[in-house]
Write a structure and sequence with these properties.
2 copies of one chain form a homodimer. By secondary structure, chain A is α+β, with helices and mostly antiparallel strands. Chain A folds into 2 domains: 80 residues, Glutaredoxin (3-Layer(aba) Sandwich); 114 residues, Up-down Bundle (Glutathione S-transferase Yfyf (Class Pi), Chain A, domain 2), CATH 1.20.1050.10. Helices cover 53% and strands 7% of the residues of chain A. Chain A starts with a strand and ends in an 11-residue tail after the last helix. Chains A and B meet through strand 4, helix 3, helix 4, helix 5 and helix 6 of A and strand 4, helix 3, helix 4, helix 5 and helix 6 of B.
Chain lengths: 214, 214
C-alpha cells in the first residue's frame, strides 16, 4: 500500500494511526501542501484524487480519497483489531463522534479555508484565529458532551480499545493545541487524547515523526 | 422511529431519502433553525444531540446524530435495498463521493457558517455568496471528476441503483441551484441528479414536500 500524506494534515494523521493500529506497513509518499504552489494541486495528484486533498490510499487497483472512507476500507479488508464496534448502535455512536470532527470541525479549519479567509476575504490574522477557535470550541465541545454523558465511554471514546473516534480525536486535539485553543472545559477529550498518545500506533503517526516533517 | 428535521437542511434531506428508499415510516419532528433564536440550540435539543445540528434519528434506545452515521445505521439494521455496494473497494468509492459532499462541501456552507460570516466577520453579501459558490464549485467539481472518469458510474453514482452517494448528491445540487451556482461544467452530476429526482423516494424527501415547509 502507498499513502499520499502530508505530515501536518490531520486527515492523513487519522489514516496513519489506523494503519499502525492494524499493523500494516505502507510506503509514505509526501505531498507538500505549501511547496510548488501546493503539490496537491498538481495535475498528476488530481488525476489520482480529484479533491486535491490528502490523504489518498493506493491498495492495488483501489485508489481511495477521504480519510474516513479509507479507515472503513481498512477495517473491512483487515478486520483485526476492529476499529468499529460490532453492534449497529455502537457503530453509529462511533461514526457520529468521528463525523463531528471530520465533517463539522476540521473542514472549516483546514489549510485551503484559512488561505481563502486570508487571501480572498482578506480578514485579519486575529479574525482568522477567532474563526479557528470558534469551530474547534463548538466541535470538540460537542464531542466532550457526547463522551462525558455516555456510559459507552471507557478508557477510549467507545469502551477500552482505540478506534475510529479516537483516531479522529487525537489529530483534532493536536490542531487545537497548535492554535492555542482553550480545552479546559473538555476534560474527557483531554483524558482520552492522553491515553491514546501513550500508544505506539498513535505516537508513530504523529506529525513530527513523519519522513516529511520539518 | 422519529426524525428531527428541518425542511431545508440538506443533511436531514439525505436521511429522509434513505428512509424512503428503505420504505421505512417515521414520525417527522420539525426543528426550526431560525425561529426562537434557533430551536436546535435549545437545551432540550442539545441534550438529544450535543452538536446542535439536525438531523437526529431516534430508534428505540438509539439516538443518532450525523446524517452519514444515520444512513449507515439504517443500512445495517434494514439491509434491503442496500445503500452501499458489497465489495470494500466499491464501498470506499461510494463513501468517498458522499464525504466529498458531506465533509468538504456542505459544512462550509451551512446556516451557522453563513451566519458567522455575516454577523461575526461582517463580510458583504457578495463576499458571502462568492464563498458559497467557491466551495460548491470545488466540491461538486471534484465529484464530477470522480463520476465522469470511472467505469463504476452508471445511471446513478455507483451502478444502476441509487445509494449513499446519490442521497448526498441531490441535496447538495438543490443547495447549489438555490444559490445560483453554475453547474454547466458538471454534466454527470446534473444527469444523475435528474435521474434521482424522478424517483418517488427522492421526490417525497424534497424540502418543499415536508410538513414544516414554508
Amino acid at each position: 500500500m502507498q499513502l499520499y500524506s502530508y505530515f501536518r494534515s490531520s486527515a492523513a494523521y487519522r489514516v496513519r494511526i489506523a494503519l499502525n493500529l492494524k499493523g500494516l506497513s505502507y510506503e509514505y509518499l509526501g505531498v507538500h501542501l505549501l511547496k510548488d504552489g501546493g503539490q496537491q494541486l498538481s495535475e498528476s495528484y488530481r488525476a489520482l484524487n480529484p479533491t486535491a486533498l490528502v490523504p489518498t490510499l493506493v491498495d492495488g487497483d483501489a485508489i481511495i480519497g477521504q480519510s474516513l472512507a479509507i479507515v472503513e476500507y481498512l477495517d473491512e479488508t483487515h478486520p483485526q483489531p476492529a476499529l468499529l464496534p460490532a453492534d449497529p448502535a455502537g457503530r453509529a455512536r462511533v461514526r457520529a463522534i468521528a463525523q463531528t470532527i471530520a465533517c463539522d470541525t476540521h473542514p472549516l479549519n483546514n489549510l485551503r479555508v484559512l488561505k481563502y479567509l486570508k487571501h480572498d476575504m482578506q480578514v485579519s490574522e486575529d479574525a482568522k484565529n477567532a474563526w479557528y477557535r470558534h469551530w474547534v470550541n463548538l466541535g470538540l465541545g460537542a464531542v466532550e458532551a457526547m463522551l462525558a454523558h455516555s456510559p459507552a465511554t471507557g478508557s477510549f471514546c467507545h469502551g477500552d480499545a482505540p478506534g475510529l473516534a479516537d483516531l479522529c480525536l487525537v489529530p483534532q486535539v493536536a490542531n487545537a493545541r497548535r492554535f492555542d485553543c482553550d480545552l479546559s472545559a473538555m476534560p474527557t477529550v483531554q483524558r482520552i487524547d492522553a491515553a491514546c498518545r501513550k500508544l505506539q500506533a498513535f505516537e508513530l503517526a504523529a506529525p513530527d515523526n513523519q519522513p516529511d516533517a520539518e
